[in-house]
């Protein structure tokens, strides 16, 4: 029950529709049994040649029961599916609320295809929880007990036989297969997740696979996973069919037993023969409610495992946005990082006791070789990651006490990989501004970013596939020039540009951030003379920090990097 407790709690948010579905399902079941019972009674009564008005009244009641059954069944389907879709919406929303604070660090542990499989496949599997796990047993119990109570007025032995059939088909057999289902490690969801992950990688890496001639091997792996997934799904379906077959066989035996017992009682004078056909028709119809119980074990286990996968993320140091967090109200920004540790799960990555200050209005460059921890430090400042230990303060206030949205609203951020949406240049620029902006302002931002040759109505393909690497970075810079926030956090903003474009962009950025705090992560060492301080990192540690002239005078690590760069450029 612990694994499905989240789903039960979300389901009870729709308790009005749930109880209405149960009521309508019960009415549809009872009117269906009444329809069959009155049909059997009418057949027997007609054989005795009763007055015509008796048959007329009985036929009218029969039609009324048929109409009532159809209407209640339609209403039950309408309400139950409305409740199911609402529950699925709540499940998706709750999963996203749990997932969203963990981004992007969750990608260190889970593959994107796996997460997609959970939010699509596992959520879709949970639609069976209400329709095939919770609802059928409740209606089955109410309808069967009501029917047994009615039949007991005519024949207690037949009522007891119905009770035995109810226990066997609705409880004993499903319980047995539920016990066996737990032991079967079908892993359909895990295999579906693996297949989704591999398919996503094949899609995103198709070009590289094609270049290196590895598409055939990857395609074969996907086919093999697809065959395994299909086989496991077939095994799952076969278990449902096996349970239904056993249930159907027991139902037939019980119906035959009721017919034989009723005939014996009628012959012995213990039962009015007029009611024999009615009782047999009742038994034929009431066991239809045992059919969904045959699939109960599979759907219950499927729902349990899907729920477990959806809510099985380990507890991580996540900023809880539910607690009241402060907004940023001032324009100046000073940041202090005090003995901060962060790792990606390996000893050679992340940060190791980093302590550094970014004074208000200062310009800071963070440099070092690839994997030194530069981008990790920037992600921590953006609250994309949370420190494992240590503290980061913004204007002497803990960063953890500041709402993420308020921080991002006050930041001009450029990441190494910036996303561009399918649409026009204009549409991709306007996501950076909240108020209406004139085309002249957009064109001015493009010009300052070095994209004066672009028009606002030029098409941008998905992920900016029709733009070069440098054009993507210039478009990202045009965005932040339009946003006009007070804290600049830039991760390799000119890595794909030539030296002349890079120098021009640096001048533009410094002009706009003249009195504001700017932090630039770069692997290039050119153009850093204008920085107030340079932080040199390697393997998660700060090796040196200070102004450009001082670092060059020390002839330490930074000096060595600079010499190597000059030799390469020459």
From TrEMBL:
CC terms in the record's Gene Ontology section: plasma membrane
SUPFAM superfamilies tied to this protein: ABC transporter transmembrane region, P-loop containing nucleoside triphosphate hydrolases
Pfam families in UniProt: ABC_membrane, ABC_tran
UniProt keyword annotation of Transmembrane helix present: yes
Molecular functions per Gene Ontology: ABC-type transporter activity; ATP binding; ATP hydrolysis activity; ATPase-coupled lipid transmembrane transporter activity
Predominant localisation class: membrane
PROSITE patterns noted in UniProt: ABC_TM1F (PS50929), ABC_TRANSPORTER_1 (PS00211), ABC_TRANSPORTER_2 (PS50893)
Domain ABC transporter: 335-564
Location relative to the cell: Cell membrane
Gene Ontology annotations of biological process type: cell redox homeostasis; glutathione transmembrane transport
InterPro entries: AAA+_ATPase (IPR003593), ABC1_TM_dom (IPR011527), ABC1_TM_sf (IPR036640), ABC_CydC/D (IPR014223), ABC_transporter-like_ATP-bd (IPR003439), ABC_transporter-like_CS (IPR017871), P-loop_NTPase (IPR027417), Type_1_exporter (IPR039421)
Keyword entries, A-Z: ATP-binding, Membrane, Nucleotide-binding, Transmembrane, Transmembrane helix
Lineage top rank: taxon: Bacteria
Membrane-spanning intervals of the chain: 20-44, 50-72, 133-154, 160-179, 246-267, 273-300
Membrane topology of the entry: Multi-pass membrane protein
Annotated ABC transmembrane type-1 domain residues: 19-305
Family matches, as PANTHER family: ATP-BINDING CASSETTE SUB-FAMILY B (PTHR24221), TRANSPORT ATP-BINDING PROTEIN CYDC (PTHR24221:SF653)
Protein's UniProt name: ABC transporter ATP-binding protein
Natural source organism: Metabacillus indicus (Bacillus indicus)
Lineage of the species this protein comes from: Bacteria, Bacillati, Bacillota, Bacilli, Bacillales
């Amino acid at each position: 029950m612990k694994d499905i407790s989240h789903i039960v709690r979300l389901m009870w948010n729709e308790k009005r529709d749930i109880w209405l579905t149960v009521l309508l399902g019960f009415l549809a079941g009872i009117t269906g049994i009444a329809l069959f019972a009155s049909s059997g009674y009418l057949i027997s009564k007609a054989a005795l040649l009763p007055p015509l008005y008796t048959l007329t009244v009985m036929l009218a009641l029969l039609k009324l029961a048929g109409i009532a059954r159809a209407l209640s069944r339609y209403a039950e389907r309408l309400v139950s599916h409305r409740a199911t879709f609402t529950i699925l919406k709540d499940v998706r929303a709750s999963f996203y609320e749990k997932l969203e604070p963990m981004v992007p660090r969750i990608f260190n542990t889970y593959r994107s295809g796996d997460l997609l499989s959970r939010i699509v496949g596992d959520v879709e599997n949970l639609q069976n929880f209400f329709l095939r796990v919770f609802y059928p047993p409740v209606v089955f119990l109410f309808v069967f007990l009501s029917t047994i109570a009615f039949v007991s007025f005519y024949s207690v032995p037949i009522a007891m036989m119905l009770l035995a059939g109810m226990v066997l088909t609705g409880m004993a057999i499903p319980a047995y297969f539920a016990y066996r289902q737990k032991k079967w490690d079908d892993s359909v969801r895990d295999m579906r997740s693996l297949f989704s992950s591999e398919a996503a990688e094949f899609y995103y890496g198709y070009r590289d696979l094609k270049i290196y001639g590895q598409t055939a091997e990857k395609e074969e792996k996907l086919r093999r996973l697809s065959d395994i997934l299909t086989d496991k799904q077939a095994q799952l379906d076969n278990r449902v069919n096996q349970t239904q077959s056993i249930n159907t066989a027991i139902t037939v035996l019980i119906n035959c037993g009721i017919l034989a017992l009723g005939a014996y009682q009628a012959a012995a004078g213990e039962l009015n023969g007029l009611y024999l056909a009615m009782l047999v028709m009742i038994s034929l119809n009431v066991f239809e409610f045992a059919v969904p119980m045959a699939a109960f074990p599979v759907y219950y286990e499927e729902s349990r495992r899907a729920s477990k996968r959806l809510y099985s993320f380990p507890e991580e140091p996540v900023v809880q946005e539910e607690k009241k967090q402060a907004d940023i109200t001032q324009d100046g920004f000073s940041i202090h990082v005090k003995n901060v540790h962060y790792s990606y799960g390996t000893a050679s990555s992340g940060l190791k006791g980093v302590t550094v200050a970014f004074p208000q209005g200062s310009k800071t460059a963070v440099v070092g070789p690839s994997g030194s921890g530069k981008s990790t430090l920037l992600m921590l400042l953006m609250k994309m990651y949370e420190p494992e230990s240590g503290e980061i303060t913004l204007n002497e206030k803990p960063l953890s006490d500041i709402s993420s949205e308020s921080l991002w609203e006050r930041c001009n951020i450029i990441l190494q990989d910036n996303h561009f949406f399918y649409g026009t240049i204009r549409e991709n620029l306007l996501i950076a501004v909240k108020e209406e902006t004139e085309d002249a302002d957009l064109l001015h931002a493009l010009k300052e970013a070095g994209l004066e040759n672009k028009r606002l109505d030029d098409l941008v393909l998905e992920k900016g596939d029709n733009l070069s690497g440098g054009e993507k970075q210039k478009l990202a810079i045009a965005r932040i020039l339009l946003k006009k926030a007070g804290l600049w956090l830039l991760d390799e903003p000119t890595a794909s540009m030539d030296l002349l474009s890079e120098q021009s962009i640096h001048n533009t950025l410094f002009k706009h951030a003249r009195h504001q705090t700017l932090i630039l992560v770069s692997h290039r060492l050119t153009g850093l003379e204008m920085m107030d301080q340079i932080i040199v990192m390697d393997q998660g540690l700060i090796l040196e920090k200070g102004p450009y002239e001082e670092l060059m005078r020390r002839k330490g690590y930074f000096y060595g990097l600079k010499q190597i760069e000059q030799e390469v450029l020459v």
